[in-house]
């Protein structure tokens, strides 16, 4: 039975979470998404060590907009003591209202050292880290959640064990990306695994992976019985997806549980409307960078140029499938000022309709599977609690 999702007693309605994405889900991007629909919008991954050391880049990444009702912070850590210190800092300094723990990162530099998606294999260490976070956060009434993958590879699945451990530790929910670390972003997400986890746990389970359109979210809930969804790459270049998701979930309830056939309004902006969102996204990035207090976090280049450079990676996602000439596309992807951006956006065919061909299609990372490199002897003893050496990253973000 699907449960009403809530955090610290407050309903999460619709049950939609913006997936933490390093290099993407900064304050401006979250604001853009939040303006479209309700839900929880998680910041970029923050490493426990960098937070405790008050690394300037990290302190910048944990800034929230005054209008962010649920300040949602994702922490990465491999050491129970380090995690306790980081969570205590969040609690004492009132830095966030929700802490999500990252146990899903498949990046080789992380798994090679036993972090991210490699860590739940060490179930006792995993228990200690999650318990340290939950117990410390509880003193300030901050709910903790866990985000994870299915496991290291098909021979080393961890998600059901990890889900049970996290449930025992007292997390508010677990979110499962239906892929192993070895799969990275290849193939399709295994929603049956989400159903298995839902069947195994009492606490809410959120499904994640390959929600490209709002009806995918409803289908994931229907097929797996999960209590909510976490949406990542589907919103790249499409922050209005959160409006569709809200309409879809509300449409479903209004239609008395008729599911996706109940119908909901899907936003299909014209190229002119997309251009307006692009312009606003870039301006928000520039404003945010300009507000940085120290030169160090500004990368020593003018805020406008820095913001426009940050925006460049979003250009191809926004324009995907629209009829835009190669030269204009290239110029947009090299933009250095807001005036230049607006000038180039003015050259687009504002009336071009949203390309149906881009609907339901993967966007962002879609790399191939690969062997997961682990620390030597990592698989030998699941109950060994030794903190993996060098895995406590000291930089946050991507
Ligand atoms: C660019 C990028 C950065 C990501 N960074 C993080 C991260 O910092 N923390 C995390 O838990 N997952 C991260 N992920 C994984 C996503 O949160 C999500 O689990 C994954 O993309 C699958 O969901 P999707 O199919 O909706 O994209 C990242 C994914 C992408 C594409």
Feature tags:
398 residues, alpha/beta, TIM Barrel, Non-ribosomal Peptide Synthetase Peptidyl Carrier Protein, Chain A, 2 domains, 8-stranded parallel barrel, two-stranded antiparallel ribbon, 14 helices, 10 strands, binds flavin mononucleotide
Task: Write up this protein.
The protein is of the alpha/beta class. It has 2 domains: 244 residues, TIM Barrel (Alpha-Beta Barrel); 83 residues, Non-ribosomal Peptide Synthetase Peptidyl Carrier Protein, Chain A (Orthogonal Bundle), CATH 1.10.1200. The strands form 2 sheets. Strands 3-4-5-6-7-8-9-10 form an 8-stranded parallel barrel, surrounded by 7 helices. Strands 1-2 form a two-stranded antiparallel ribbon. Strand 8, helix 8 and strand 9 form a beta-alpha-beta unit. Helix 11 packs antiparallel against helix 14. It is globular and about 60 Å long. The protein starts with 5 loop residues before the first strand and ends in a 53-residue tail after the last helix. Flavin mononucleotide (FMN) binds next to strand 4.
Query: What pattern of helices and strands is seen along the backbone?
Result: EEEHEHHEHEHHEHEHEHEHHHHH
Name every ligand kind in the structure: flavin mononucleotide
Number of domains: 2
**Hey, roughly how much beta strand do the residues contain?**
5-15%
Radius of gyration: 21 Å
Question: What spatial form do the alpha-carbon principal axes imply?
Answer: globular
CATH homologous superfamily classification of the largest domain? Aldolase class I
The biggest beta sheet, please? 8 strands, parallel, barrel
Q: What would the CATH topology of the largest domain be?
A: TIM Barrel
- Name the CATH class of the largest domain: Alpha Beta
**Which consecutive residue ranges, at least 5 long each, have pLDDT under 50?**
254-261
Strand tally is 10
First-last Cα distance: 36 Å
Q: So, CATH architecture of the largest domain?
A: Alpha-Beta Barrel
Q: What is the number of helices?
A: 14
Structural class: alpha/beta
The percentage helix is: 25-40%
